[in-house]
Design goal:
Helix content: 40-55%
Oligomer: single chain
Low-confidence stretches: 16-42
Mean pLDDT: 84
Radius of gyration: 24 Å
Order of helices and strands: HEHHHHHEHEEEEEH
Structural class: alpha+beta
Strand content: 15-25%
Length: about 270
Amino acid sequence: MRFSTLEKSFMATIAIAVPLFVVASRLQNHQFQKAALMAKKVVVATRVDSSTIVITPKGDYARQKQEVSAAQSRLKRLYLQTNTQVEKKKVLDSAGRYLTNAIVNQLVPHWYGTPWSFEGYTETPRKGEIACGYFVATVLNHAGLKMNRFKMAQQAPDSEIKTLHQQPIGIFFNAESVSAFQDSVRTLLKEGLYIFGLSNHVGFLLHQKGQVYFIHSSGYFPDYKVVIEHASNSPVLYYPQDCRLGEITPNEKLVKQWLLGETVVIQQ
């Protein structure tokens, strides 16, 4: 079969272009995978105020839990020794602030980088994998809240929030309204630690010094691990949906249960 000059020219071009396209595609895919791998291995915090938030864990995790438990006991004695409601409220306020710091700066740093898995339920930071619900339930349990972490982790977000004695606060957001979401948090919520729930995800929300952070076992690309993210950089806010929020440390009733070592009953 004979080909015209034009056909020969076209075939020659294809012969050169196709291999180049394949090489370029493989290179691009390799670079993409490399970038994703680096992100997965290295980055656990984005736009975080390192003067108030600890990223690198200190000491041994078991020792940190013991220190939190000892502080809990001291605050309990102080609470029981006070005689007036005004004094008791001051102790509860102090306990709430302490619990925020203990969770965010003593316990959670040990969890950063722990791989996410939909079925993960490890109790040991950076050993095994952990799902988003188990991360929240496990950290609260290790901080001294007496609860069945398995039952807590298996609840829908609204039920988890109700377990913490709250009616969920709903804030709608999308990628174009991230700043509006942060403004709503600053306006509606006291500073402290919250649980946030989406249709298929749950984690902690930290409102501190006018800044809003998500702390969660992220099943979002490129993380797939426990991270802390400033709200303005978090993929949590990429898709339009309702965010359900419930108080943890600003919740006086829950803080009192933590202080007195009372069991938190899981809502069905």
